[in-house]
């Protein structure tokens, strides 16, 4: 009960600084109980006094506002991309306090080598932040399921059946800095991007988040929560059939969305097959200066994205479709074709083009989501503090 | 608190007859509290004594098993189909106690005329059952949203913006029998069919229920609950694009699933354009005697259903896909092609053909779901009884 009340008080403070009286009013706890719980949270380093609360118009001594402690435990996020690694530390308030990103081609590399690079990056980000992380969440471009963060398959990395936590831990031990004993979880990058959109954006409770890095993924958020599916594999939007008789996909099927809107397909359509480096930046640069091939390739990708999104909208009735990840940067050239498809194909329910939006977080979404998930878990259950 | 405890006791009894001691053990309430609550539920006509409980191996007087009262309040379901009307009464245990179905072509008919026929059918079903219904749920082949059971659009009936409860109530008043004052709710037939599958079948917590009458619909069940979407319009599976450049659909888009697996499309493919009466029975009869055109038409529909279902599986990761409604009867000829498509297109996660199943409830599903929903609501909240 005390633990539940600690979480209740901390959750209230997490919505914005407030006085003990305001916390009491918001939680239904007595003033005395709130004061006692607040002392414990302060002693545990989770909460700080922020100075006088805003005047409430009430008579009496002005209260002191309580806020989440920006020097308290942090959230550590990590990201393994096909062409980059990332590390991020956020404080309890969700502010970014450490950020590292390194371009490195990870396709076909041994997990141990990738983890060694990632561990160094994490160490640097933590050092920059000055915070002590409570746990680590790892974002990966693949299917994560079962216990222990088992990466079942990441086609674009060429990885299969990699126990992510077990693979990262020795590298963290070698890198030093006390990170090796952190709890480690892993999740699909689109899932974490979708959660970031929900947590840091001002999105609705029900939306479809569509993103791309090397592959195409989605997160389905229903009632503010991620729809994970019976086996944890929901969101494989890149393998929704768009043209059933279309080109063969790496997955073995024909005409999957990824064959029209994934990296290789869009580069090929733009006449850039084999281009190296950041495909999103390359296409954005070309389309930005009016390159007709790049623009046509992105319009074609937008049409395919719109067709698949229309099917998902007819099936799921989300309030919004949010374009995130690499697609957010390419949105100026994807949106017109996507909007046209959605308008033509979502006809049996209310729909308007304002329901297709672009993520403000863009490609930072999955890594931010990974880090913020850690601090949200701390706030939701501060545990037996004090 | 007393109301919540009444629901707790009633819910425990609803899982199967049990003694007061078993209810106490299952709920954590004291024997004395259970006895008092049981007396109130018996007095309210919701619960009956069923005779000696099964011996539990415990010393002492054998308990008397408590069960839901089969003479208690009933659930009244109604169904408006394009070619039929239906009425069903179930008792608190979910047993069918009254059943009426009448073939009648409702396309383009005035709602008032349809409601008059339906009211007579409901009256007959209630008289047959000998029960007093607690409420009425109406299943319709269209989009139901907003308050008061507003049917926004039912293309196959030719109806738009029909306030269903308000339209049915005067007909119930005219038909007599005291049904006019019942609470009335309405829902999409596929939603109710999916819920029936969950409640009466032995299905998993996460599945996609696909059904057909005149149109093609689906219900998405996640964690045992219906996914309704932001506006209540989820499940429009018939308008998932299958071939984006395919024939124009009544909805205005091109190549929707309904253009390959809906009534008109399948009849046309079977050389039966304009056939009257029950299309499902007609095709089942023809295919059953080996008619090649009927079999080819159903195989084509199965392929389209499999393509669209594969996209939904990749997106949602359900434990099963359940074929219900008219499709359940046509399953012998739909399944092989559907299974082939699913096997070819669901490749990024575990899948096996046993995950595609056929509803045992078949075309009775939506009407059963409508009636059972009423008694489940009574059990979930018996209200201020006694």
UniProtKB/TrEMBL annotation, chains A, B:
<dbReference type="InterPro" id="IPR000600">
    <property type="entry name" value="ROK"/>
</dbReference>
<dbReference type="InterPro" id="IPR043129">
    <property type="entry name" value="ATPase_NBD"/>
</dbReference>
<protein>
    <submittedName>
        <fullName>ROK family transcriptional regulator</fullName>
    </submittedName>
</protein>
<dbReference type="InterPro" id="IPR036388">
    <property type="entry name" value="WH-like_DNA-bd_sf"/>
</dbReference>
<dbReference type="Pfam" id="PF00480">
    <property type="entry name" value="ROK"/>
</dbReference>
<comment type="similarity">
    <text>Belongs to the ROK (NagC/XylR) family.</text>
</comment>
<dbReference type="InterPro" id="IPR036390">
    <property type="entry name" value="WH_DNA-bd_sf"/>
</dbReference>
């Amino acid at each position: 009960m005390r633990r539940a009340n600690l979480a209740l008080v901390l959750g209230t403070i997490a919505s914005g600084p407030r006085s003990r009286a305001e916390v009491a009013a918001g939680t239904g706890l007595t003033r005395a109980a709130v004061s006692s719980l607040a002392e414990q949270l302060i002693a545990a380093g989770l909460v700080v006094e922020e100075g006088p609360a805003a005047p409430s118009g009430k008579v009496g001594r002005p209260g002191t506002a309580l806020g989440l402690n920006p020097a308290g435990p942090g959230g550590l996020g990590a990201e393994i991309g096909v062409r980059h690694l990332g590390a991020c530390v956020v404080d309890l308030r969700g502010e970014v306090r450490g950020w590292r990103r390194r371009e490195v081609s990870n396709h076909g590399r041994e997990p141990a080598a990738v983890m060694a690079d990632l561990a160094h990056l994490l160490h640097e980000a933590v050092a920059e932040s000055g915070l002590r992380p409570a746990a680590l969440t790892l974002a990966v471009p693949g299917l994560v399921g079962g216990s222990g963060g088992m990466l079942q398959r990441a086609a674009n990395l060429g990885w299969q059946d990699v126990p992510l936590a077990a693979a990262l831990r020795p590298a963290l031990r070698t890198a030093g800095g006390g990170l090796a004993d952190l709890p480690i979880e892993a999740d699909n990058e689109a899932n974490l991007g979708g959660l970031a959109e929900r947590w840091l954006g001002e999105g609705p409770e029900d939306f479809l988040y569509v993103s791309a890095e090397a592959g195409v993924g989605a997160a389905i958020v229903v009632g503010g929560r991620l729809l994970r599916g019976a086996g944890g594999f929901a969101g494989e939007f890149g393998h929704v059939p768009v043209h059933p008789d279309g080109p063969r996909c790496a997955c073995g099927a024909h005409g999957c969305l990824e064959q029209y809107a994934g990296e290789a397909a869009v580069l090929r359509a733009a006449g850039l097959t084999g281009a190296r480096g950041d495909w999103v930046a390359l296409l954005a640069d070309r389309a930005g200066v009016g390159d007709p091939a790049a623009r046509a390739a992105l319009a074609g990708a937008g049409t395919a994205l719109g067709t698949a999104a229309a099917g998902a909208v007819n099936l799921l009735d989300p309030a919004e479709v949010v374009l995130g990840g690499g697609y957010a940067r390419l949105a100026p050239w994807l949106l017109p074709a996507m909007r046209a498809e959605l308008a033509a194909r979502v006809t049996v329910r209310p729909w308007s083009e304002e329901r297709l939006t672009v993520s403000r977080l863009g490609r930072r979404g999955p890594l931010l989501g990974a880090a913020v998930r850690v601090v949200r878990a701390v706030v939701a259950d501060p545990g037996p503090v004090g």
